[in-house]
Amino acid sequence: MENFKIEVDGDGIALVTFDVPGRTMNTLTASVIKEVGELVERIKTDAEIKGVVITSGKTTGFCAGADLGELGGSGGLGGASKGQEGLQAAFDAGFALNKAFRELETSGKPVAAAINGLALGGGLEFVLAAHYRVVADLPKLQLGLPEAKVGLLPGGGGTQRLTRLMGVMAAAPYLLEGKSMKPAEALGLKVVHEVVPAGQEVEAAKTWIKTKGDPVAPWDKKDFKIPGGGPYTPTGAQVFIMGNAMLRKNTYGNYPAQQNIMKAVYEGLQVPFDAAIRIETRYFIKTLMTPQAKGMIRTLFLSLQELGKGAGRPDGVPHYDVKKVAVLGAGMMGAGIAYVQAMAGIETVLIDQSQEAADKGKGYAEGLVKKAVSRGKLTQEKGEAILALIHPTADYANVKGSDLVVEAVFENREVKAAVTKLAEAQLADTAVFGSNTSTLPITGLAEASIRPESFIGIHFFSPVDKMGLVEIILGEKTDQATIAKSIDYVLKIKKTPIVVNDSRGFYTSRCFGTFVQEGMELLSDGIAPAIIDNVGRATGMPRGPLEMHDDVALDLSHKIAVQTKKDLGDKYEERPFTAIIAKMVEDLGRYGRKNGKGFYDYPENGPKTLWPGLSDLVEVTVKDADKALIEQIRTRLLYRQAVEAARCFEEGVITDPREADVGAILGWGFAPWTGGPISLIDGVGVATFVETLDQLAAAYGARFTPPALLREMAAKGETFYGRFGVKEKAAA
Amino acid sequence: MADAYIFDAVRTPRGKGKKDGSLHEITALSLASQVLEAIRDRNNLDTSKVDDVVLGCVAPVGEQGSDIARTAVLTADYAESVAGVQINRFCASGLEAVNMAAAKVISGEADLTIGGGVESMSRVPMGSDGGAWPTDPSSAFKTYFMPQGVSADLIATLYGFSRDDVDAYAVESQKRAAQAWAEGRFNKSVVPVKDQLGLNILSHDETVRASTTMQTLASLNPSFTGMGEMAFDAVATQRYPQVERMTHVHHAGNSSGIVDGAAGVLIGTKEMGDALGLKARARIKGMASIGSEPSIMLTGPSLVTEKLLKKLGMEVGDIDLYELNEAFAAVVLRMMQALDIPHDKMNVNGGAIAMGHPLGATGAMILGTMVDELERSDKETALITLCVGAGMGTATVIERV
User: Boundaries of each 3-hydroxyacyl-CoA dehydrogenase C-terminal domain copy (chain A) (predicted)?
Assistant: First the structure.
């Protein structure tokens, strides 16, 4: 075995060290899964072995779980329906690990796990199959089953053992939300038996084997009772009845993984353990076959990881270490950018028109640091050191020596041009000038620059300290070195970069805008506002389109519409809803959430309520929603965004499906269950998508008309990830 | 095919369905047996002529399990040739039992049957039988399961019934029930429940409150706000996105009471009635059941009424009296709204809001109420219906002969 080392001591205790060669972290690769079976066979048959202690040879932890790279590949199960033989093979493969863990548990020899670092997913399931768990008292050590977060179901007995250890109600957040636990918490929840100082796990595990060494799992004992009771006990029934409803409330039924976890738990708890894990594996396979699992693994795990390592960075440019950055404009965005830079150890010059305004911008970071210190997340010293990196000033002379500038002043070409000139006067030739604009084309802004090849868009999202995405926008003249340097900067501040080409609204704002616009289309179609926002939320978007519009601000939307009309002239397509917004903004002073009056009213006490006057402005003709209408609205809201993303590919605004999908979910909260708009299209199939778009276009207008690229792909049977995806690199 | 005639209808009074209720110390079996005994004794019935006893029971576990209908047949000392079957259509079980008993007669399978029901909610609490529908994620997700009270509040929200509307309906129900009792309108069918010694332990419906007013009801907090906010309001708005915000209006005072009780209806062919000297009081004119949207659950009555009336070639206006189980005030308000039924034709002697709803028995009880009321008020036809769990409705039309 290459992944496990076995040393049997004088007491007959086999110390099994889990150590996958050539990797920094243990994962359950295909080779490991095969060897777990061999390991168990050896334990069972080797008479010299009286007991077993399992630990890890890695300092990084015990095991991080399944190899999602491999699983994502076999996520090739995605969507396709398989024949009886294929399903049986999938079951057999999926059951191998579950079965091996069960054999370890029933080998008749006591097994203790010495957990010396994180144990996640299959890693935790491995140790749950041991009879005794000792964990090192490391404050950051995580134990958990994060599968549900990437659309998967714990398939190594986790749904069955965790519920039998903790009870269904207590286990629910760990199974359904992928919440993890720290050692002390795990001890309290009876998931582990002992917490010992780091380094003493193996000894403590051996001691248990020598002194107690009970080789029978609790659920294999005659008097075993599920904590809190099974589904058909009075308390257990309530847990399931409420749990089912809470799950619908939280997921809108969009996530098959969570539903299947519930089903596996419900059905599994009613049968003996050996049957329970068969049920679990069936639901594991069922989940793995969904397009949601495929999309979520790819986007929320693999692509996110790849982009986080700079996958989109041009080759051949040396790493650019950004040490000092000037942020122009200390408003909300500038202040947030200053904060994340300081957190990443970047010396930050925060410039505004007056010292007072600049100080106020630093105040934002001071507030956040203070909060972190009071919560014990930062020490006083570290907090002070972070704040000391931010230099508020009104003097552009301080820009000197900056490796990069982020311009975050008003969305006004003249103002931006002016500060560009002031800053560039101080900059070295190698420095990058980034504009944090969300609407103005970069090529146009670069005209104010004397060095347009170093001019680039660096689009942050608000609130900067919470939003993980940065959209990098190339102007016509932006050079490769500037792209690479910008990516290095974004990675340094621990954000995920995507690179897009210049276009109105770039990629994220442009596609996000279509969601809000389609909400307006639905409104002018006479659909009741409550239906629009309730269905909007149920698509998996963070909010409904009307409330989202209120959040964005109606006056801003109106301003953009007026500007776009001016810019596009004859090409501008006037939609009925623009008049609604114009009336709300110009005549009624309803600007959205910011002035407490938009599509909703925002009373001081209590939740927002739909503005009753809206029905006078737009006649409501559709007051009821049946399932068919719900489905239709859902499709309109999601496909409208997806077809825009497809157009962005056709126009070359975005070129990498990974960036399109990650950017959508991180940037504007596109329904995560889809894995992103491009995964959504690939998941339903381009041909089917085109067919639906044609129907939508016939019914609702040209905005749904499939671009030529989609028709071509449909004809050729292509997928986005096939056509535009990065070709598999040899040996990941 | 034969016609099915109703010869007699018997019910127990309804006792408060809690540990301090008068019938709590009487077994469910005893309640069912006493009803069968009363039918036998009042009619001087040769029980060997009875082919089958169909009893509704919604929580058929514990003492209500193991086919309580056959058990009651034996305990009541009916001839051992009399079969017994327990059925469950949730709240319409008692009416469904009557319909099945009638169907046996109509089809020729039987000449004389008893349909009825029993539920001791104080002894076998609601929900004791478990069930996959709300518990198994496979069905709970698919059906957007929510508890009935939330469904009733959803009906009120969707169809615009305010707290005042439902409370006013409840006040009227109490008033009508009290008046009906005062005038002895239930005397024909109510038989007192006897204790173990044979002494009367309860001879009237225990939960009627003639003193109920809008003011007394106003002090009650809505019952389903908490569980609604926890999760079920969200379930409701996912299925009915036209609802911006749920309003919770139902409480113990405008919903059916939890009670104990049993009922039975003697049904047979004309020929059998003549042979046994039984007087036919009414004829079963038609019966129907329907499935409706399961999450809102309680809109079946108007749908099954439309289905049944169409089958019978009748119009809403052709029915003299309507009896719809008062599961929740909004359920009745919705049926009156949907079919444009005037309140003076609906539940004329009050209903379950005042007198309670012993789940398995109610349908047979309110059918008996209609047999009595048609005679008392000298009217011809009545339609009896109930809303049913998981989205169903059951209805029966009877006419005097």
Answer: 505-602, 635-718
